[in-house]
Automatic annotation (TrEMBL):
Segments passing through the bilayer: 6-26, 33-53, 59-82, 132-154, 189-209, 215-234, 241-261, 267-286
GO MF annotations in UniProt: transmembrane transporter activity
Membrane topology designation: Multi-pass membrane protein
PANTHER family: AMINO ACID ABC TRANSPORTER PERMEASE PROTEIN (PTHR11795:SF445), BRANCHED-CHAIN AMINO ACID TRANSPORT SYSTEM PERMEASE PROTEIN LIVH (PTHR11795)
Protein name in the entry: Amino acid ABC transporter permease
């Protein structure tokens, strides 16, 4: 049963990485920019969830506040940071994005304190269920169920709605999409809004999982997310989902074999390095001839 427990842990963390990383993939697929500041959106979502939940006494309102605030912040990042830099080399907006991440991390530290914030009432985080000897926490279930609903909804949106189809067309064939009347500027704003909302949900769930949000909550996750989108094949949502689940499972099972020498994050980065050496084109990339 212990190995099944680890599988549950790995899948739940993989779902969190997926919700965080897909936003990066969407931005890269559309603008060819490594959106490093996405980690600041993740952290903002976590803070908004905790603060709103503490103020209202409702966890649902906490997540609702995060889903409202972070898309606005994400769209502001595009308008004020990236749009003026689109004519420059791709490394220029990436460097600006790193600067924004550092600035936001320091802003969180100044406003909320070095120690971070916690939920005042958080029985949800400590609720567990036992299924035939396998212990599963309520937060783990929430991570998996939320990810499944979110990505199913995203799939239906991009395949069954006019706006979603136009969005996909703009990512793959921007000139053709524009000739059919699709507004690329609106698509970019939509891209940042959806990606930011996904990061906010992931941040709020991680806040629940740890019962803590500190200024550095998005820092390590951002490194992993960048490696995940490379491993998944830059711009590929399907590859990103696969890479996220693989990383979550490798982290979980790696603690058994090399946990005495490396912590969880070190195991993840070691696995990512090895996987990228074996398959540098990523899971969704075409193998070189």
């Amino acid at each position: 049963m212990y190995y099944i427990d680890l599988a549950v842990t790995g899948i739940s963390f993989g779902c969190m990485y997926a919700m965080m990383s897909v936003g990066l993939t969407l931005v890269y697929g559309l603008l060819r920019i490594l959106h490093v500041a996405h980690a600041a959106v993740f952290a903002l979502g976590a803070y908004a969830t905790v603060l709103a939940a503490n103020a209202t006494g409702s966890l649902a309102l906490g997540f609702l506040a995060a889903i409202i605030v972070t898309p606005l912040f994400g769209m502001a990042i595009y308008r004020l940071l990236y749009e003026p830099l689109l004519g420059y080399r791709p490394d220029v907006p990436m460097i600006a994005s790193v600067g924004l991440l550092v600035l936001m991390q320091d802003a969180f530290r100044v406003v909320f304190g070095e120690q971070g914030v916690t939920f005042r009432r958080n029985a949800f985080s400590f609720t567990t269920f036992d299924f035939y000897g396998v212990t599963v926490s309520a937060v783990q279930i929430a991570l998996v169920v939320t990810a499944a609903i979110v990505f199913l909804g995203l799939h239906l949106f991009t395949t069954r709605t006019r706006i979603g189809v136009g969005w996909r067309a703009t990512v793959s064939k921007p000139r053709i999409a524009a000739s059919f009347g699709v507004d690329p500027i609106k698509v970019r704003y939509l891209n940042f809004a959806i990606g930011s909302a996904l990061a906010a949900i992931a941040g709020g769930l991680v806040a629940l999982l740890n019962n803590l949000v500190d200024p550095a909550i998005g820092f390590v996750v951002s490194y992993k997310a960048l490696a995940i989108i490379v491993l998944g094949g830059l711009g590929s949502v399907r590859g990103t989902l696969i890479a996220s689940l693989v990383l979550g499972l490798v982290e979980a099972y790696g603690t058994i074999f090399i946990g005495a020498w490396l912590d969880r994050d070190a195991i993840a980065f070691l696995a990512l390095i090895i996987l990228l050496m074996i398959r540098p084109q990523g899971f969704a990339g075409a193998r070189a001839a």
